[in-house]
């Protein structure tokens, strides 16, 4: 039987994506209440819609969500001098650090992604991110010279981080600056979703700064329909995905960038050159069960570009949409896993 037998009422102008290898959404128990929450955190906005069981008040959900967001910031924000990650970044060369759970989980995932992507994802790019004006040190429009670039590159390198998985500890090799901005938002989405599950919710849509995760159906029986983000000015035919048991993340060159001498410098750095990526990808969207993985993969595919990225995604059965080009026209490339979800 189809996962969602009733697809009435969808805008005809959109293509529709349905996950196929999923369990059917749970039937909503009697007495569930729909709640909407929103706020600001991690330099962006967030929102949660959830169907809560009887006895779980809105304030309870709000406190749960806030606690998870606070935890991500406390452990992993490079914008806070007293966070766990900032303390690690300042720590002495050769020192070992026992990591709190969230920090450990994200570092472990980030290093695995770095290994699997041949270093296209690198959670140690802090000095380069700052050099190009995308980090906590703030924005500037001048371009770094070769000496500055070499100095920053010498301080990066995910292979230099020691990770002791048995002790859940990491070694600061000296002057390494971790930067989880390419993965932490996705992790935070997963953490909030898990908190909703623990609270007994059977249906939700969690969103932080454009990364989302959804489960189940709304009160009207419809899944959480989410439009895949498209670059501004792109008038291609939109896509809607039924976000059930699935998360979505987009990396876009229009999200954070500066222009200099007629060129756009966006905030994804190619670790091979130490410079912002140069190919003409405008955005990459990835669907995955875990938002943390979708978030990191969107960055990986942005670094690799359409050609290399398509090979990487095909080999791993990743559902991804690449949009290349610019104001003069956009082109779309879908991986087979994404095309397989088209209704
Ligand atoms: P957003 O969701 O805000 O568009 P992304 O998930 O695309 O952000 O991540 C971009 C951020 O990740 C950058 O601002 C930078 O801090 C960091 N970053 C840039 N290049 C890389 C890379 N190659 N690997 C890992 N992190 C990166
Ligand atoms: Mg990312």
From TrEMBL:
Its cofactor is Mg(2+); Mn(2+). Pfam families: ApbE. Its EC number is 2.7.1.180. Keywords: FAD, Flavoprotein, Magnesium, Metal-binding, Transferase. Magnesium. Can also use manganese. The keyword Magnesium applies. Belongs to the ApbE family. This is FAD:protein FMN transferase. It comes from Herbaspirillum frisingense.
């Amino acid at each position: 039987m189809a996962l969602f037998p009733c697809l009435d009422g969808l805008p005809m102008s959109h293509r529709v994506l349905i996950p196929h290898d999923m369990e059917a959404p749970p039937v909503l128990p009697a007495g569930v209440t729909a709640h909407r929450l929103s706020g600001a955190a991690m330099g962006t906005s967030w929102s949660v819609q959830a169907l809560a069981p009887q006895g779980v008040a809105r304030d309870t959900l709000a406190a749960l969500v806030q606690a998870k967001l606070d935890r991500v910031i406390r452990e992993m924000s490079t914008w806070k001098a007293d966070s766990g990650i900032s303390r690690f970044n300042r720590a002495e060369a050769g020192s070992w650090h026992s990591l709190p759970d969230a920090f450990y989980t994200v570092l472990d995932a980030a290093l695995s992604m770095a290994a699997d992507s041949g270093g296209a994802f690198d959670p140690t790019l802090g000095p380069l991110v700052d050099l190009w004006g995308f980090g906590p040190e703030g924005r500037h429009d001048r371009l770094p010279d070769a000496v500055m670039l070499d100095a920053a590159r010498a301080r990066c390198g995910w292979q230099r981080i020691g990770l002791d998985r048995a002790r859940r500890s990491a070694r600061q090799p000296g002057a390494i600056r971790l930067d989880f901005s390419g993965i932490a938002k996705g992790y935070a989405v997963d953490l909030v979703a898990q908190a909703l599950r623990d609270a007994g919710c059977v249906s939700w849509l969690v969103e932080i700064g454009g990364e989302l995760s959804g489960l189940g159906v709304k009160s009207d029986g419809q899944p959480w329909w989410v439009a895949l983000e498209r670059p501004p000015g792109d008038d291609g035919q939109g896509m809607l995905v039924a976000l059930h048991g699935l998360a979505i993340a987009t990396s876009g060159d229009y999200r954070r960038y500066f222009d200099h001498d007629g060129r756009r410098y966006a905030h994804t750095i190619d670790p091979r050159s130490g410079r912002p990526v140069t190919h003409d990808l405008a955005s990459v969207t990835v669907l995955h069960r875990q938002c943390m993985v979708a978030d990191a993969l969107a960055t990986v595919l942005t670094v690799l570009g359409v050609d290399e990225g398509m090979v990487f995604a095909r080999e791993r059965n990743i559902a991804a949409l690449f949009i290349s080009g610019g104001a003069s026209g956009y082109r779309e490339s879908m991986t087979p896993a994404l095309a397989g979800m088209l209704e």
